[in-house]
Amino acid sequence: MTGASRPEHAPEPYRFSLLPDFPYVLVYNCQRRPPVIMRILHGSQDLPEILSTLPSADDSAP
Fold first, then answer.
1. pTM of the model
2. Structural domain of residue 37, as residue ranges?
């Protein structure tokens, strides 16, 4: 998967990818193999509030 790092919203290892033709954003852990989708969010939601509940990088490891 390819995606953008958005450190203002979530720390590494999380990446963001837009779904073409849909108003949704995938948030995934790029350090996991295969990548683990953590959230599928509608773009109009309050992303900072929702993303504050993501596990830390240490908690999301296998």
1. 0.81
2. 1-57
